[in-house]
Specification:
Layout (H helix, E strand, L loop, with lengths): L1 E3 L14 H9 L1 H9 L2 E2 L4 H18 L7 H16 L11 H17 L12 E9 L2 E12 L3 E7 L8 H19 L5 E6 L4 E6 L2 H24 L1 E3 L28 H9 L3 E2 L1
Helix pairs in contact: 1-2, 1-7, 3-4, 3-5, 4-5, 6-7
The structure holds iron/sulfur cluster.
Length: 280
């Protein structure tokens, strides 16, 4: 459903495009509009907070020397870093979320079932690597969880939450995009991409075939062109899906709420502010 909106003065697209922006736009253009043109911030969720803590623990664990990467040390990192992360004002409400905390503990334990951390060949500077490079005319930005070289050059990304099931191919696009960025920014040909699903104890490795990388780059360019057109049209596509159930903008979305005000209008903004949403 094409939805006419109101843009703020001097509205523009973000200077750099990340995978999560691309993925959000593909999921629903109107949601992208609320998030990146009007800069509304969706409130943190238990899953997001748990995922962030898990990533933090994995990063700190792999900074240790191989023989120090034990489950005890991982749990010690969790004991130190978890409370610090939950003490941030935006995360405080999750401090008593014991299900989330249990999920994080399990995810950290599962890392030692999925792989053998002491045997992973990784340099500290190859953790949380920042990517900033132009791909197909688009300024791309991203952060790679881990780049390893053990005879095979591999880009890996940790995931928390459910098993990907039939959505695996879609989720791999992120890693193909990172492999393409590696090639363009560092002139490194990545051999393999990997997704590690910590809660469902699964990992998937796929060859970084040129065709997949190019397809990911094409999707990025298309997203950029289409969003430029939406900006000119002052209209964005609302795409109804199961994910609407988790969308913070339902009450101001004409595709979901019959009497919703025009997205971007002062009435729409007032409803979002009243629901406790903040601007980035
Ligand atoms: S409720 Fe659904 S259609 Fe509406 S903005 Fe959110 S994701 Fe898009």
């Amino acid at each position: 459903m094409r939805v006419d909106v109101e843009h703020p003065q001097n509205a523009n697209l973000p200077k750099r495009v990340s995978y999560s922006q691309m993925s959000l736009y593909q999921q629903c253009g109107l949601k992208f509009f609320f998030s990146y043109i009007h800069n509304w911030q969706e409130p943190p969720t238990s899953a997001l907070v748990g995922g962030n803590i898990t990533h933090l623990v994995a990063e700190e664990l792999y900074k240790l020397a191989p023989n120090e990467r034990t489950l005890d040390n991982a749990m010690e990192i969790l004991r130190l870093e978890g409370p610090k992360f939950l003490a941030r004002p935006e995360n405080r409400e999750f401090d008593t979320d014991f299900i989330m905390k249990q999920n994080v503990r399990e995810a950290v334990e599962n890392l030692f079932t999925i792989e053998s951390p002491p045997e992973i060949v990784v340099l500290p500077e190859h953790l949380e690597m920042k990517l900033r490079v132009e791909i197909n005319g688009v300024e791309f930005t991203g952060t790679v969880d881990r780049f390893t070289q053990d005879g095979i050059k591999r880009v890996s990304d940790y995931k928390t939450g459910k098993s990907p099931g039939r959505f695996l191919d879609g989720k791999l696009i992120q890693t193909y995009l990172y492999a393409l960025a590696f090639k363009t920014q560092f002139e490194i040909d990545v051999d393999e991409v990997e997704l590690i699903f910590l809660n469902s104890k699964e990992s998937f490795r796929r060859p970084a075939e040129v065709g997949f990388l190019e397809d990911a780059g094409t999707q990025l360019a298309k997203m950029h062109e289409d969003s430029k057109q939406d900006l000119l049209d002052v209209a964005w596509d609302a795409k109804i899906s199961k994910l609407c159930d988790y969308c913070a903008f339902q009450k101001v979305c004409p595709a979901k709420t019959v009497d919703a005000p025009k997205p971007g209008s002062s009435s729409s903004d007032a409803i979002l502010a009243g629901a406790g949403l903040l601007r980035k």
